[in-house]
Amino acid sequence: xVQDIVIPEVGESVREAVxxxxxxxxxxxVTKGTVLFVLETDKVTLEVPAEADGIVxxxxxxxxTVSVGAVVGRIQTERAAEDLAEEPRIxxxxxxxxPEVAFxxxxxxxxxxxxxxxxxxxxxxxQPEKPPMPQEKADRxxxxxxxxxQLGVDLARVKGTGPQGRITRGDVLLFWESQGHATADAxxxxxxxxxxxxxxxxxxxxxxxxxxxxxxxxxxxPSRGADAAPEETRKPMSPIxxxxxxxxxxxxxxxxxxxxxxxxxxxxVMDFRRRFKDAFKEKYGVSLGFMSFFVRxxxxxxxxxxxxxxxxxxxxxxxxxxxxxGIAVGAERGLVVPVIRYADRLxxxxxxxxxxxxxxxxxxxxxxLSDLEGGTFTISNGGVYGSLLSTPILxxxxxxxxxxxxxxxxxxxxxxxxxxxxxxxxxxSYDHRxxxxxxxxxxxxxxxxxxxxxxRLLVGI
Amino acid sequence: xxxxxxxxxxxxxxxxxxxxxxxxxxQLGMRTACxxxxxxxxxxxxxxxxxxxxxxxxxxxxxxxxxxxxxxxxIRLQGIELDLSAMMARKDKVVGELTENVRKLLERxxxxxxxxxxxxxxxxxxxxxxxxxxxxxxxxxxGSVLLATGSEPVSxxxxxxxxxxxxxxxxxxxxxxxPERLGIVGGGYIGLELGSVWHRLGSQVxxxxxxxxxAALLDAQISRALERVLRRQGFRFFLESRVLEASVENGEVxxxxxxxxxxxxxxxxxxxxxxxxxxxxxxxxxxxLGVATHPKTGHILVDANYRSSVPxxxxxxxxxxxxxxxxxxxxxxxxxxERMAGLDSEVNYDAVPAIIYTWPxxxxxGKTEEELRDLNVPYCVGTYPFAxxxxxxxxGETEGFVKVLSHASSGxxxxxxxxxxxxxxxxxxxxxxxxxxxxxxxxxRIMHGHPTFAEALQEAARVAAACAIxxxx
Lengths: 461, 473
Description:
The structure holds two protein chains of two kinds. Chain A is of the alpha+beta class. Chain A is built from twelve helices and 19 strands. In chain A, strands 10, 13, 14, 15, 16, 17, 18 and 19 form an eight-stranded mixed β-sheet that branches. A four-stranded antiparallel β-sheet of chain A has the order 1-8-6-3, with no helix packed on it. A four-stranded antiparallel β-sheet of chain A has the order 5-4-2-7, with no helix packed on it. The longest helix of chain A has 18 residues, at about 265-285. Chain B has three domains: about 5-50 and about 85-150 and about 280-345, FAD/NAD(P)-binding domain (3-Layer(bba) Sandwich); about 165-275, FAD/NAD(P)-binding domain, CATH 3.50.50.60; about 350-465, Enolase-like, domain 1. Chain B is about 35% helix and about 25% strand. Chain B has 14 helices and 21 strands. Chain B has helices at about 20-25, 45-50, 50-70, 85-110, 170, 190-200, 220-235, 285-290, 325-340, 370-375, 390-395, 425-435, 440-445, 455-465; strands at about 5-10, 30-35, 110-120, 125-130, 135-145, 150-155, 165, 180-185, 205-210, 235-240, 240-250, 250-260, 260-270, 270-275, 275-280, 315, 355, 360-365, 380-385, 400-405, 415-420. In chain B, helix 1 packs parallel to helix 9. The chains are: A alpha+beta, B alpha/beta. Chains A and B meet through helix 2, strand 9, helix 5 and helix 6 of A and helix 1, helix 7, helix 9, helix 10 and strand 19 of B.
């Protein structure tokens, strides 16, 4: 198809301009963005770029006075894409005006230029995939090496633009920015990335070209390898990390926390799950995990020992009629504890589905504050990271938290015989101000019984 | 060997690389010698390069202004005359003073100067054939040898230099009379600057360039703007054209040129060949010692400490890769000598200014728009015309614009390109800003005196900052 090349608006009061020069020849193949010709008025000079890829036809020669909107040439675009139903013949003028025009129009404009969409920012900065020749190894200036170490940039992926293709600090920064580190609040430039140093430290590396004035012999530089990584780096705490830190410290300071342990033989619950997981999945569309067993066991134990589900509020104790079960989940940005509401009313399938929903929400960053509020008890599963035994920390104002751990085949004594059983340690951290040792130990034992004999959960004993 | 010929560092060459290296080495307590084959110190830059060309550019611009520009300011002069020999004498005086200053500077720092041709005869030995005493040589023992011999003009096959009609830049700085028709082979900065000198003094200047645009390393938008300005001033350009043959007949230079549209015959009174420069390594004894050079460009290959492939032998400036600029050589000289002394010194190649002293001037630092496009870096462009700067209006110099390139996400300055009045002075602010890792918005926010030319840079930076997608503030 054919696109007209039109004289754009140059400014509000300007109706005519001189087409000073064509930068392309008739029949020349151009790509979108190629400067086609230059317009001159008494005020401004304006370069007009091609709007599409194609072959240029020139209708008005250079040197003529042209008016705004005049067609001065055409671009024969290559094989018009399948449907070009009603593509506008040419884009609105303002969108294509280079900035100097805006001045004439009495306002500034700017044009952001993005790299071609198909080139991912990261890939763009990489060198071609080929085994590097010995001489092509990433050669860098010392400061570029230091900066790369500070920023954690792999120099093998940075393209060098210095003399002999050597990598400069600027090359490292460009690569770093291409990795998405270039937000508005990212530290600015060199001074900011060389942490813990004076703002203008970067400057001292650039010698002045004039002979420096005589000076006392400089102090010797500490003999550290030129490319050594910095001893330490500093980063601001993310808001979520700050909140976590506050809450955990508060828990330590404002409760009388201690932990009791037990261990659970997982044989029967694993067997139970093996037998029913296919049918369960078929019926409910979610997998049957161990978590629903533990939630049910907790609900039962919490109903038997209501102090574990209660809070201290001043001089009073607040007992909760229902169980709102917090499940600690490690997310990329930090730990979050979404709450399963009315866990005491939910079936195994409903519990599994609720957990699955939270995982999806966390992954998609859709978790709402209301999802995190109102828990009365928490389960934390360190076992997913391989923890054998740990003491979980309270999630105030809650009074207790159950810690699960990894399942491990261990020799145990059973009926006078040493047998191998899949075992899990469990830990209950509790606020001793409200829960006595007897209750805590009993609570944990009830969990143990419920998991070791899952039928108990069915009949509530 | 006599102790007086034993040095910590021997520098071969006394240009902006060599003499700065000598001074810095002496300041750091090294026993330093400088070897210079010419009688005057300062190298190409001071003697037949930057300095004399700028002296003539300033003189010729005054002449041009007196004739063409004064009337618009309401100043009428009559009987303006050109005294070329006085102009040349002034230029020589400027050069003389500056080279003398270099001599005094080296003397003050107790640098021993040997006038003669230095040659490496061992990694730590330089043999100098003394200029004033032919046949006699001295052998210098050196802890380190620093090569700083610079570059020389490239010659073109089919265009034989004769030093009178077909000349290099050296002779074009000292024409005895104004050539009526001056041909220039090469549209780089040397050709354009010397072309400007002689054009202002009255020559009809024709530039023949192989590439599709002049000053090809510039940002393309700046390069096209410069070409238009120069054409309007009266320059003739043959782009994408190649000189096939040049010969001198009856005091005229006959040139056969292959242009885009076929062959042309051109006649000039003088032909300046300025197609580029190459490292001057001849006679240094590099091959015998095994100092590695680039097979195509002839540059000496060095590591980040400016060490060549032979231990104890260093090289800087035009001899090694990178732009052939006096200030780059000086910066490398300081960094090289300081690194020899164990200091942590470095040249920032991301912020090397480059200037072309045409009028309007052209100055640049950092990456061009084309380079950023090739690197697939998302960037913002902000331009602002000098016509919008009050100071430029007052001076009557409204041609040109400032172009600021910044990173689209971080807003960090990536390149600054200026064509316009006093671009050579404005660029210093851009270099400092880039060295400090500033954002476009930083230049936009700092106070600029009013009315100044630098306000155009501030406005362009504001435009670029307004476009930054995330870095807006």
